[in-house]
Design a protein that fits this description.
Layout: H1 3-38, H2 41-49, H3 51-72, H4 76-107, H5 116-142, H6 145-149, H7 151-171, H8 177-208
Helix pairs in contact: 1-2, 1-3, 1-4, 1-5, 2-4, 3-4, 4-8, 5-7, 5-8, 7-8
Length: about 220
């Protein structure tokens, strides 16, 4: 296989690996939301343990990307793709960490079944986060700059709804240590959306070499 063709194949595989990491992270997030809603404590404990798998996948991606740079000495445009891939993988791993933080916070709640209103609010935020991450994945797979730029509006809506969620919790007579755990969970979701926006910024960098702050 000619060197250039081989390198392009490696780039494609690297992007596939990053997509797989993204789907694993998203699946973990969805599982966490479902476990919270179902008061499924064993599943929440499993999600905490599964963080090591996500970390290992990201390290494998880093190793592959580093070897590509060392072996191929890529030109500027190809190097951008590798660097963007590394940054995207790092942001996805952080989303995984925040998902674990959510699971830990849920495990600290005395009885999740007593907080239907809080869980409903979390579900509303989660639906937006899932939609956002799906659109980020699509933009990354297609190197879609316009799609990446649209992510900022989704992040703004999540920021607003997170702020409203917090205000309602602190104005409630139910405010307690348990309720604070729900505030933390919402905060972790808001941070996940920020990392989704970071991925969108790296898509733009990958395509045109410019860094834009979409936050």
């Amino acid at each position: 296989m000619p060197t250039r063709t081989h390198f392009e194949a490696e780039l494609s595989l690297l992007k596939d690996d990053i997509a797989d990491l993204g789907h694993s992270v998203l699946r973990g997030f969805q599982d966490t939301i479902q476990a919270i809603e179902a008061n499924n404590l064993p599943r929440l404990e499993d999600i905490v343990e599964e963080d090591e798998t996500i970390n290992r996948i990201e390290l494998d991606i880093n190793d592959k990307a580093t070897m590509m740079i060392a072996r191929q000495q890529p030109v500027a445009s190809d190097l951008r793709k590798i660097i963007a891939g590394l940054k995207v993988a790092s942001d996805l791993e952080r989303i995984g960490d925040l998902t674990v933080d959510m699971a830990k916070a849920a495990l600290r709640v005395d009885n999740l079944c007593n907080y239907e209103t809080e869980i409903e609010g979390l579900n509303d935020l989660a639906k937006q986060v899932i939609q956002m991450i799906h659109r980020v994945f699509l933009a990354y797979s297609q190197s879609d700059v316009i799609g990446a730029q649209h992510i900022a509006a989704l992040d703004d809506k999540i920021d607003k709804d997170y702020s409203d969620f917090v205000k309602h919790r602190f104005s409630s007579e139910k405010a307690s240590e348990d309720v604070m755990q729900f505030v933390f969970m919402a905060r972790y979701m808001e941070r996940i959306a920020d990392y989704g926006t970071n991925v969108a910024e790296w898509i733009i960098y990958e395509v045109n070499g410019q860094r834009f702050d979409l936050n």
